[in-house]
Amino acid sequence: TVAQVPPPAETRIGPGATIVQRWQPVERAGLYVPGGKAVYPSSVVMNAVPAQIAGVSSIALVSPPQREFGGAVHPVILGAAGLLGIDEVYAMGGAGAIGALAWGVEEIGLEPVQVITGPGNIYVAAAKRVVRGTAGIDSEAGTTEILVIADESANPRYVAADLVSQAEHDEAAASLLVTDSPAFAERVTAELDELAGATRHSERVRTALGGPQSAIVLVDDLAAAAAFSNAYGPEHLEIQTADDDAVLADIQNAGAIFIGPSAPVSLGDYLAGSNHVLPTGGQARFSSGLGAYSFLRPQQVIRYDREALREVADRIVALSGAEDLPAHGEAVTVRFRG
């Protein structure tokens, strides 16, 4: 994560003229940690550590209240937050929690934040879209998605296990296999039936796998598989083929990419060193996963001495005249009179 904090960069435009680009953290961030069908201490880490590395000085965390704990935040979430030094935690969830972070709640001392990050369901994702402009957001990280590009060389049980692992998040989770092998597709289907029936959240998994958002897609070749994936823009993309790097070279859009049989999405969910807060709903086509950079803003610092300004004064006057904004030019020439 430290690698995601760029150092200041200075560009010398000419004698006496420099531009410095520096990266400034936001002052206050709001972290959303889901807590509906499961408890996610990993999401505390994935949200908080990048914010802290970026240098955010004030952090508020929200997570849904838990009935079994009297409406309090789950103690595992509180424990994870405490270990990371976060002591401003609110028991609130869903779209309302996103609004509370964006606009603040004076009655409970919740001050508005400048950036809101974290995954959630479709309502959380929709709320983040609504508040964008009042506060910044990382991405619309909604219901989970996995897309696996695999060919005949892949292990069908590995692929099926990975599809099931993401389907257990939510009945609306999307699990897709894209392959150029009908025979491989049949083997994965058989493995899915066995694994879905044996897992703890079998009903949830079967609902997700059987929903319109999940599918096994047959394509002519792996180039077509990559094209399909780019159009879809999945949150998680796995590539398990005879030549993973060749497929990777054709990939443009994905939240995170997992290469080979030993890199399941579960690795990224917990311990790969990457972040599991990723864009969903096709937003990987234009946005990225959470990182320290999500809490940083590039700022340009301009320094010109008198002679450097004199060197460009005539051109500024000419440009301001062309745009019929003469006061812009006057703000330069006034410095050289008398």
Automatic annotation (TrEMBL):
Pfam hit, one: Histidinol_dh
Classification via CDD domains: Histidinol_dh
Gene Ontology molecular functions: histidinol dehydrogenase activity; metal ion binding; NAD binding
Metal-binding in keyword set: yes
PROSITE patterns tied to this protein: HISOL_DEHYDROGENASE
Keyword terms: Amino-acid biosynthesis, Histidine biosynthesis, Metal-binding, NAD, Oxidoreductase, Zinc
InterPro entries in alphabetical order: Ald_DH/histidinol_DH (IPR016161), Histidinol_DH_CS (IPR001692), Hstdl_DH (IPR012131)
GO biological process: L-histidine biosynthetic process
UniProt-listed Enzyme Commission number(s): 1.1.1.23
Cellular component GO terms, alphabetical: cytosol
Functional description taken from the UniProt entry: Catalyzes the sequential NAD-dependent oxidations of L-histidinol to L-histidinaldehyde and then to L-histidine.
Family statement drawn from the similarity comment of this UniProt entry: Belongs to the histidinol dehydrogenase family.
The name this protein goes by in its record: Histidinol dehydrogenase
Species name: Leifsonia aquatica ATCC 14665
